Amino acid sequence: MNETKQKEVMTVEGLVSRSKAAQEQFAFATQEQADAAARAVCKVIYDNAEMLGPLAAEETRLGSEADKVTKCRMKSALIWHSLKGKKSVGIINRLEDRRMIEIAKPMGVVASIVPSTNPVVTPMSNAAFALKTRNSIIFAPHPRAVKCTKLLVGMFRTELAKLGFPEDLVLGLEQVSIEDSGKLMSLADVIVATGGMGMVKAAYSSGKPALGVGAGNVQCIVDRDADLAEAASKIIIGRSFDNGLICLGEQTVFIPEEKFDAFIKEMEKQGGYYAAEPELADRLREGIFPGGGVISRDVVGLTAEKVAAQIGLDVPEGTRIIIARARALGHGDVLCREKMCPVLAVYPYGTFEEGVAMMVENLECEGKGHSIGIHSNTPEHVEYAALQCSVSRVIVNQPAGTTGGGSPTNGFTATTTLGCGSWGNNSFSGNLNYDHLMNITRVGYPYEESYLPDPELAWL
Question: 297: which residues sit within 8 A by CB, 6+ positions away?
Answer without folding.
Answer: none
